[in-house]
Design goal:
Order of helices and strands: HHHHHHH
Structural class: mainly alpha
Helix content: over 70%
Shape: elongated
Length: about 140
């Protein structure tokens, strides 16, 4: 067990395939597409009250944006799952087998994805805009 701990602490830094937790440009593009889609969908109700054509445009922008965003997220998730399956990482971990440099690089990639600041910003943005949209919709539909 002591030997595995030493490997965990030292090996990933010396791996040639070590992946820094840097986000790619394409991930930022799809992040922005997701934010725009989130905003567009949340303003549909308000725009429908002001000018229906703008509400429809916002709806299309939102739905197309979400479509693109989730196709990208699906591809990323599918590629990650395929890499995990091909590497046998789950089996190695469940059997407490030693991990090699590629396994550590894969684990690092997974952990970087889970700890992404963009994900937290995205969830906050969705929550915040949803709350505002809900309050505005209630106001416009029932209190105005």
């Amino acid at each position: 067990m002591d030997n595995n701990i030493k490997k965990i602490k030292g090996e990933p830094l010396s791996c040639s395939g070590y992946r820094d937790c840097q986000d790619s440009a394409i991930s930022w593009i799809f992040f922005l597409i997701g934010l725009i889609a989130t905003f567009a969908i949340r303003v549909v109700t308000v725009l429908m009250h002001l000018e229906p054509i703008y509400g429809k445009v916002a709806w299309y922008i939102g739905v197309i944006g979400f479509f693109l965003f989730f196709v990208y997220k699906f591809k990323v998730g599918h590629a990650r799952a395929k890499r995990i399956e091909e590497s046998g990482l789950s089996e190695k971990i469940s059997k407490n087998e030693p991990l090699d440099c590629n396994d550590y690089a894969l684990i690092n990639s997974i952990l970087c994805g889970l700890g992404s600041r963009k994900e937290r910003i995205n969830y906050f943005f969705i929550f915040f805009l949803s709350a505002i949209a809900l309050l505005l919709a209630i106001y416009m539909d029932f209190l105005k």
